[in-house]
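User: Please predict the structure of the protein below. I'd like the answer in structure-token form so I can feed it into my own downstream comparison script.

Assistant: Understood. Taking the following sequence of 870 residues as input:
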Amino acid sequence: MSFPIRCPGCDVALNVSDNLIGKTIKCNKCGEMITVKSPAASKPARPAKAAVLVDDDDDDNIITAGKTRRRNDDDDDDIAPAKAARRRNNYDDDDDFDDRPRKKAATGGSKAPLLIGGLAALLLLGGAAGAYFAFFNDKKADTAQNTGTPQPSTTPETGKSEEGDNNGNGDAKEPDKTNDVKPSEKPGKTTSPQSTKNTNVKTSGDTIPPSNSAEYMRHLMDGQMDDITLRKVKEATVFIVVEVPGGGGEGSGWFGLEPGLIFTNSHVLEMKAPGSKPPSKITIYLNSGENGQTAGVKQREIPHNRIKILGVDRENDLAILQIIGEKNLPEPLEIRPSAGVREQQKVTTFGFPLGSLTSFATGGGNNRPIVSVRSSSVAARRYDKYGILRLVQIEGGVNQGNSGGPIVDADGKVVAVTVSGMRDAETESLSTLAFGVATEHVTDLLAGRLDTVEYEQPYLSDGKVKVPVRATVVDPLNRFQRAGIGKWVGDSSNLFRPPGPVRTGILPDDKHFEQVDLKYDSAKKVATGELTFDQLPPGLAYWVQPYYSNSKNPMYWNPGSMLPMSGPPVDRVAATITYKARTGTVRPIELSNSSAVSEFNEGEGTGKDRRVLRKYMVKGTEKILQPDRNDTRSAARIRLNYNDIQIKNLLGKEEIEDTYPPSLMLQLKNGINQLEAYGYVNRSGEVYKQTTNTLGVNTAAVQALGPAVSYHALQALLFTSIHIPNTTVQPLETWKTTKNVTQTLYHIVIADLQQQSTPQQRKAGVIPGVQSKDFKYIQEITYTYMGSRTRGGKREVVIKVVGDAKPAAGMDANSAKGEIKGYVFLEPGTGTVLQAEINSEIELDNSEKGFKKRISLLDNYKVVRGGQTN
């Protein structure tokens, strides 16, 4: 408690804490040294309070939960000796920190900017250590560009950045304590006013510095936490064991924000990939590995039937679990906005690096590992192209198994959630560079947010352009309120409009703005609706900008962008779609496959927005040939002759580095016309088999890399072919098919390509430096006829493609999962694909030699055919 005194030098009134009685302080106004004496009327001692969950400046605002803990409101003589000793250190008394002035936001959520962003070639860290099989081990770029649910980067009142510039541009701002999210403060809940305490008092040696002081900043930068805080974070950190059919994994998590809630990564739960089902079993261990070595602390197991998955945010790799029917759970940790951390700030990672291997290494048998507490430091904050904070980059303190664990500051507040590490491209060893998901995403997940927004094929109706919209929502605690789309007509040269709590970036050419609320189904977590536009004037574009409301934001605008349109709107009329091979037809063709391949330990997962895509693009001609008489499935063959090739590494739409040495690429480009490839087509127009002929190749580079390059091009041919119904279909009519897929992954070591093959290798078709492995699964595809249109003087039909990846016959239920989405534009009389784009995200089992491993495939397939040439 505090009481007033007056300075004898200048007569200014000062409020001081009663723990300063008998000590000397300095008046900030006149510099007079003042000995603090007990007030004339002594007050009765306060009774002990319950455990403090919130750093509250008002003694009357103590929130109770869990164990009882005395506050240091009494004199030192009334405190246990050990605690009194800690009081002598400015930073070692957790209760003294409770007496620091705190700024509080009007609402419990963070208003600081939110993330997507990350580096390429990431290895996520959810499982125990194992062998790493890298497909394409070239250097990966240290760049970032991702997208996701943003947080405002400016305040609506001032338009100024909420985050200080820590890069030498003006005055750096301290970590933002205003937006600290505390366990008792649900997003959107208004906090109680805090008592006003005098911060203009400096003591002669042993008081806690105010939160806006340089001393406190040094405390945060040093990262040292007191014993009480350390113990609290350790108790809140949990070990998670997940079982799925055919495998499983291990990872870390932490109790946070509200009682009974545990935060971790979605990949720890084996739920990062699209189409992932909940694990068959989850077990959570509190005080993991503690069996009496720490007095009064013992391992505690939370069984699967007491654990509920509340929500999974695949985009940001986060998940929320709830513990049901269990008492005496650890105090939830508070979080601090990641936007407030500074470069070189010392932080601490908590978790279970290498999982159970650490307990095996010490002869622990089946005992669970003890939580590891490791020092780290902030290296950078990673933003996406919209200026939204996505990741906090740290240096050290992370290994496989740390995924989902808290990264905390000196006050024990979570500043990021461990998610991934990065391997050295040369040595294939895990580097000290690692990443944590920004905490702004944690509060967003808790409050509910828009996830994906899909705009269906536009169509014409009564002279208007209609655009169906379907948005998915992540809302684990049912705090999401509404969703909608802002629409207008604007300039076609702008890239995006800024996100934030108010709509900004409005330009003079923006016309006919309107907000359209979507219909939200809270049970299905889906919002749907339809946009209506006038027909588009020349030189302009349709613009859309999603918005939503939740318990944290009365209104929040996602980035605005031009409506994606691949050609004019369709007419919703019936069409006859048949496949008819016209032997001898020759067309120019362009095939591209942008592919990212990542392997990881079981239970790790991988982030699609943090990977570099390797783009293979070939140009050439195709000729329709007679069917293969020895193949009863064959209705026709496609012969491909290449005349150009490009191979690039891409992050988003940006090329980031050369893929192969220039001399090697020159040999490939000059010799690619030596290759000849074939696709086999069945009676429904589907390409079901592909081959590449290298008999006429006399260039070493083409001999070595040509089959791999051709394979990727032919994958685009295969995945963009569709099952033709060979009948008349009505608008929005659907039909289905199942495809058996064999995916070949190539492992190429550039340095080994120069080696000469042995006669035995040549006979077996083995090329030094090139290895391959086949994976089999099935695709269950649904096609929807959206309508037809005239484009470029030719009539075409538009087919929507949606599918799921499933295990092949006889394989484990978890051996393959994922999704396929895209559009195909067909010539209705022949069934020829004129243009198509298909996106595929697949996860496959790659376990071998006792190691549980998974392969993640991210592919974008495109094909463009020109007009018939004869």
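That's the full token string. The longest strand covers residues 770-791.
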